[in-house]
Each structure stands twice: as structure tokens, then as C-alpha cells.
């Protein structure tokens, strides 16, 4: 479970022990939506790029290859050959993104598959059953990720329903494990804090779910269009009411600057599709800022992408070659770029942990919080 090693202000340095290994925190979880990183990376590539946790998508894996098929094949760890911790989301965000195709009731949500339009019902019990079949290390509770902003009364009703759903998730996962129906009998459950940008809803909801004594807690419903200053404010408001002895996860965030701001406010875990998605379009993170490798100025540039980086791309290839691969639509360019960005994010987290170990996080934060999000 979570062990707090030290603080620097609100920033936390810790360890999170699971049946699939110990995670050094703060950490970034690399997003493998359909059990693979988009861009042609395998579990072994993740390991080579210092990934600690892989995140997979409950909704997408339920549709294909089917969670029951994954269970028959031994669960996600055996299926993907990833031997570290895996977190599966609950499907709640997909319900949010499919808002035009959904109907929410007390029992759960009915919505249309984005693949073929067939009707799907998912509630707390169904989400837990799917995640139990996947055998992840961490299962996320089923919640509603609301639009932000939302009307106060709707947000309040949604928060209340999410608490009721969370209690059902906890009961169902306990039943599945007790009856030997979970691929991973040690599967953990994280609850998700909601409440849009209403301080009283956020605080009240956090207090209610903290009372359920779960394995970890996430802050959801942010990074969905609100100003980043508002996101940071909400994190600070919620953090004060999060259990100090449980791990904290900020969902779907974000840029290197966002991560530094989150760590500064007491967050332990992060995830985002941004590093791999940006890489596939040639937008690459470096310790001097963000570059677009497709720009003409790199056509004859023999430098590595980032001299301070030790990833496979930076060790072996020039900016000119990487630009050529993108312009020629060669798959290798996308693969190298994604490897670089994920290596950068994982190395960023390593350097954050080292700064916290050394008591120099504040100086590290001030040096890089704006620089790393700047486009060169």
C-alpha cells in the first residue's frame, strides 16, 4: 500500500506497494488504451523507457477483444506481457465522451458503441465485473465525469449518485474476489472525487468517499476544458481533505507544467494520452521546451532530438533523420517519437523524485514549470 517517505511543502515522495510491484511516486502512468501504446510500442518498450505503471481502458477492452476473452487468456498481464502494475479505468470517461449517445439512470448508463452502434449497458457492477476479468492491479470505481461547468443542482445530484455507485462498486468487487471470480484476487479499488469547480461539492464528496476507506483516491472531472488555474485551485481545495495515508491520482493530466503543479499540490499519480498523441504528430518534449520536428529548420540538423535525453531515438538518430521519417510517412518516425516522449515523461518523474529526495523540488519546479510547456 502507500508509504509516505517525505514532504516538501505539500509535495509528497512515496512508495506504493502492489501485488505486481512497488511504484516510486510521484509517477506517470503510460496510457495503453487497447492494451498497447499507440505508435507501435510493446510492454517491453515501456520497460525499456522506465515506465512503472501501464493504464488500460475498460470500455475499449470490453468491446474488443472482450474482457471475458482476456480472462480466458490469463488477464492483461499475461495477454500483454507487462509484468508491472496495471490500472484500468472504469469506463466513466467514455460515458462522458459519448454524451450524445447515452442515458443515465440510477442503475447505470445505456449508450451506443462507437464501433457499430449497438446498445451497451454499464453500471457499477458491470464495470467491476469487466475489470475483474481484465485482472488489473487497480480498478477504478464507476462514476459520472460531468461537463465542466455544469449546473450546480445537476452536479450535486451526480455527486450523490456517484457515492451510491461507489458503494456498489466496493460491494461487487468484494463479492467477485470472495467467490474467486477475479483474475487478480488482490485487485485494488480507487474512488473518484467529482464536483466540477464547486468547492463545497468537491469537499463534501471527498469526505464521503474518504470514509469508505478505499485503497486510493482520484480527482476526476478536471482537464476537460476549464482554465488551468481553476484546475489547480480545485486540486488544492480537495487535497486538504484527502487521506494522508492513501495514494492520490489526478486523472487525465497533463503537460509537464501541469504535472509539476500537481506534484506541488500533493498529487502522486498522473496519466494522459498527451505525450503519445503529440508525438504521433511530431510535437516532442525536450528539456528546453516543445519542438515540432516537421519544421523545415530541422531538415539538415544533425543534433539529437534532445542532448539531455538517453532514449533510443536520441542516442542513435538525428533530428534530420526523424524529420525525414515523418515527412515520408514512415512508421519508424512515429515509433521513435512516441518512445522519446514517454521516456521524457518517465524521466521527468524520476528527476522530480530525486529533487524531493534532495529537498530541492521547489527550485526544480521554478526552473521548469513554464519552460517545459514552452514551444520552441
Automatic annotation (TrEMBL):
Cofactor: Zn(2+)
EC numbers: 2.4.2.29
Keywords for this protein: Glycosyltransferase, Metal-binding, Queuosine biosynthesis, Transferase, tRNA processing, Zinc
Leader peptide range in chain numbering: none
Subunit composition and interactions: Homodimer. Within each dimer, one monomer is responsible for RNA recognition and catalysis, while the other monomer binds to the replacement base PreQ1.
GO BP: any one term: tRNA queuosine(34) biosynthetic process
Catalytically driven reaction(s): 7-aminomethyl-7-carbaguanine + guanosine(34) in tRNA = 7-aminomethyl-7-carbaguanosine(34) in tRNA + guanine
Active site: 89, 271
Primary enzyme class: transferase
Keyword Transit peptide belongs to the record: no
Similarity comment text for this entry: Belongs to the queuine tRNA-ribosyltransferase family.
Protein name stated in the entry: Queuine tRNA-ribosyltransferase
Residues annotated to bind Zn(2+): 309, 311, 314, 340
Chain segments annotated as coiled-coil in the UniProt record: none
Pathway: tRNA modification; tRNA-queuosine biosynthesis
Pfam family, one: TGT
Cofactor note: Binds 1 zinc ion per subunit.
Classification via Gene3D superfamilies: Queuine tRNA-ribosyltransferase-like
Residue intervals of the tRNA-guanine(15) transglycosylase-like domain: 10-369
GO molecular function: metal ion binding; tRNA-guanosine(34) queuine transglycosylase activity
Region (RNA binding): 252-258
Amino acid at each position: 500500500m502507500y508509504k509516505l517517505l517525505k514532504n516538501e511543502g505539500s509535495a509528497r515522495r512515496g512508495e506504493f506497494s502492489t501485488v505486481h510491484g512497488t511504484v516510486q511516486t510521484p509517477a506517470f502512468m503510460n496510457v495503453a488504451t487497447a492494451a498497447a501504446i499507440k505508435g507501435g510500442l510493446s510492454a517491453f518498450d515501456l520497460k525499456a523507457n522506465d515506465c512503472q505503471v501501464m493504464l488500460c481502458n475498460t470500455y475499449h477492452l470490453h468491446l474488443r477483444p472482450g474482457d471475458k476473452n482476456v480472462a480466458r487468456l490469463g488477464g492483461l498481464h499475461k495477454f500483454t506481457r507487462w509484468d508491472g502494475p496495471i490500472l484500468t479505468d472504469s469506463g466513466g470517461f467514455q460515458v462522458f465522451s459519448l454524451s450524445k449517445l447515452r442515458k443515465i439512470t440510477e442503475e447505470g448508463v445505456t449508450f451506443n458503441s462507437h464501433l457499430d452502434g449497438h446498445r451497451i449497458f454499464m453500471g457499477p457492477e458491470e464495470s467491476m465485473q469487466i475489470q475483474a476479468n481484465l485482472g488489473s492491479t487497480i480498478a477504478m470505481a464507476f462514476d459520472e465525469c460531468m461537463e465542466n461547468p455544469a449546473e450546480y443542482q445537476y452536479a450535486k445530484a451526480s455527486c450523490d449518485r456517484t457515492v451510491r455507485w461507489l458503494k456498489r462498486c466496493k460491494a461487487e468487487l468484494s463479492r467477485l474476489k470472495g467467490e474467486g471470480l477475479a483474475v487478480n484476487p488482490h485487485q485494488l479499488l480507487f474512488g473518484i472525487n467529482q464536483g466540477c469547480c464547486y468547492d463545497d461539492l468537491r469537499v463534501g464528496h471527498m469526505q464521503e468517499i474518504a470514509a469508505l476507506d478505499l485503497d486510493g483516491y482520484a480527482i476526476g472531472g478536471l482537464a476537460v476544458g476549464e482554465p488551468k488555474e481553476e484546475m489547480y485551485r480545485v486540486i488544492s481545495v480537495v487535497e486538504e481533505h484527502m487521506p494522508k495515508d492513501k495514494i492520490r491520482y489526478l486523472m487525465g493530466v497533463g503537460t509537464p507544467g501541469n504535472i509539476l503543479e500537481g506534484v506541488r499540490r500533493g498529487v502522486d499519480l498522473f496519466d494522459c494520452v498527451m505525450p503519445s498523441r503529440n508525438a504521433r504528430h511530431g510535437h516532442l518534449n525536450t528539456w528546453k521546451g516543445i519542438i515540432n520536428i516537421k519544421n523545415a529548420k530541422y531538415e539538415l540538423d544533425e543534433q539529437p532530438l534532445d542532448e539531455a535525453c538517453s532514449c533510443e531515438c536520441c542516442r542513435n538518430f538525428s533530428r534530420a533523420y526523424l524529420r525525414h521519417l515523418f515527412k515520408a510517412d514512415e512508421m519508424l518516425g512515429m515509433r521513435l517519437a512516441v518512445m522519446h516522449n514517454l521516456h521524457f515523461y518517465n524521466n521527468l518523474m524520476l528527476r522530480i523524485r530525486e529533487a524531493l529526495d534532495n529537498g530541492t523540488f521547489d527550485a526544480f519546479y521554478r526552473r521548469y514549470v513554464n519552460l517545459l510547456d514552452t514551444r520552441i
